Amino acid sequence: MTPPALTTESAGTARPAPVTDALVTQPVLSWADGAFLRHGQPHRVLSGSLHYFRVHPQQWADRLRRVAALGLNTVDTYVPWNFHERRRGDIRFDGWRDLPRFLRLAEETGLDVIVRPGPYICAEWDNGGLPAWLTGRPGMRPRSSHREFLDEVGRWFDALIPLVADHQAAHDGPVVAVQIENEYGSYGDDHTYMRWLRDALATRGVRELLFTADGPTPLMLDGGTLPGELAAATFGSRPDQAAGLLRSRRADEPFLCAEFWNGWFDHWGEKHHVRSPSNAADDVDGILAQGGSLSLYMAHGGTNFGLWAGANHDGTALQPTITSYDSDAPVAEHGALTSKFYALRDKLAPHSTRPVPEPPDDPPLLEPATLPVHRGSALPAALRSVSTPVHAANPLSFEELGQASGLVLYTAHPVVPPGTHEVTVTGLHDRAQVFVDGSLVTVLDRPTASFGVTGTGAAIQLDLLVENQGRINYGPLLGQGKGILGGVRVERRLVHGWSMCPLPLDEWTAEELTRAGTAAESADSRGIATARLHVDEPADTFLSLPGFGKGFVWVNDTLLGRYWDVGPQTTLYLPRPLLRTGDNLLTILELDRFGHHVDLVDAPDLGPCEEYIETFD
């Protein structure tokens, strides 16, 4: 179908054309007198979040079966725009991005589907799901009725929403509801933007239930809800208070917890957040006792493969999210069924209107093993071997280099007078290793940071290897740039004449990995290393890297993710589909210090735990 064209209001804000009568039909999921109806019959939505983009496609069907065995009748998923359109104009719905296939598998499993297309999703996902090429555009104002932002959202929705609409229950598909934006009241109060999004969904074919989801406070509900559209809440505790607030405002609407936080995510350098099964089950029981419906966030968390993990900001420092998105969910990162699974199943199954499948066995795992590590090229020579430098008078940001994630190696040759002098980097996002004449002198991890150099009156070689540790996914700093956004000074004098080597690690091919690893043999403590894993029959496993510091691991030519010895996570989940029968190559890019071997272990280690329940005051 050809979506309706955008029109322009007198205020200069792009809006879709009005909804026509031909598009208005009775949705399969509706409500009356404070209760949900499905095909006109009383219904309770028992949902759980499972993100197709955090699960290998060959495991989608298995994870959906496990969610169904939890006693759920519905699955929900976000749709991350940046995952589908890494470069403007190249929109992909194939392979790992085959959303229609995921929807069909959910239908085959007997599950309804709630789609949450954003365009902003949070989800602890890089940049909250917004493409870096979009938020990095000068003057861009995301998540608002800024005309340029709406034009890009409209173009993205032209591709996405008809696919979702084709799989609606109205067309005998599984999609019964679509969310408008995501927790918008935690961010802004641009109701013109929210109305535009609602109309953009409708004019592109969405006929099923539309709803908003916000935290259960007056401030958040005021900013994010829309008259005439179901208002849902997101919370992790005190369901009676959330129900009371929603019903005081929307007495005729059903009580829906669009995200019940039965676990939580983790940042590097913190503890692993858990929530006891009994505590989570008690609050699920409280939601059900209020006659409510809910979605478990997460039912199955999955993994931030590659460089897709986002970051938060506490007002002082960046808080990068770890590679695992296990989230202490009832279905663990590798598909195992936890004690929380059975505690929640006991609460949910009696309310199911469909037969609840028997819980499947846990997936098989490889036997533990130790793999020797072979060192290859040193930093930064290995990195220069796989990049064509870009030259400019001033350091360029990741966005100016057309790069979303990974590393950039900045090099300049300033003349430093005799004596010790202070060098200051401003606008650093996020972390830089500083090399002077090939030797590591310091690591910087603050937006403005300084270090000393000793000059002789000659030029030095100054290298700054800058790592994007994940784009902010929540709050007013959403869309913040990466790289060196200010400049570099020796005392008060700016350093000019830079060359920059873009290093988009998650786009490296097997050939580039090989070239980096064989650029120059070295016994240096950081660089490229490899290990070989022979597998007779592929199965899941976990990688442990004892003695290693901070870096990245590839399995064959797929970037598995980051590791970092600050924890809490000390193992990386390696799913069976990434392994092949016979020899497999592990490639490690180590930024700090090498260990001597890689261990395969048969259980995850996500670090020391602390009980955590997110609440709203």
Report on this model:
It is an enzyme of class 3 (hydrolase). Belongs to the glycosyl hydrolase 35 family. The strands form ten sheets. An eight-stranded parallel barrel has the order 6-7-8-9-10-11-12-14, surrounded by five helices. A six-stranded antiparallel sheet has the order 19-30-20-26-23-24, with no helix packed on it. Helix 9 runs parallel beside helix 10. 18% of the residues lie in helices and 30% in strands. It folds into three domains: 300 residues, Glycosidases (TIM Barrel), CATH 3.20.20; 105 residues, Sandwich (Jelly Rolls); 119 residues, Sandwich (Jelly Rolls), CATH 2.60.120.260. It has 617 residues and is an alpha+beta fold.
Please give a handful of descriptors for the protein shown.
single chain; 617 residues; alpha+beta; TIM Barrel; Jelly Rolls; 3 domains; eight-stranded parallel barrel; six-stranded antiparallel sheet; 18% helix; 30% strand; globular
Question: What is the assigned CATH homologous superfamily of the largest domain?
Answer: Glycosidases
Give the C-alpha Rg: 25 Å
Major β-sheet strand ordering: 6-7-8-9-10-11-12-14
The total of helices stands at 12
Structural class: alpha+beta
Largest sheet: 8 strands, parallel, barrel
- Which class of the largest domain in CATH terms? Alpha Beta
GO biological process, one term: carbohydrate metabolic process
Keywords: Glycosidase, Hydrolase
InterPro entries: B-gal_1-like (IPR026283), BetaGal1-like_ABD1 (IPR048912), BetaGal_gal-bd (IPR048913), Galactose-bd-like_sf (IPR008979), GH (IPR017853), Gly_Hdrlase_35_cat (IPR031330), Glycoside_Hdrlase_35 (IPR001944)
Domain Beta-galactosidase 1-like first all-beta: 395-503
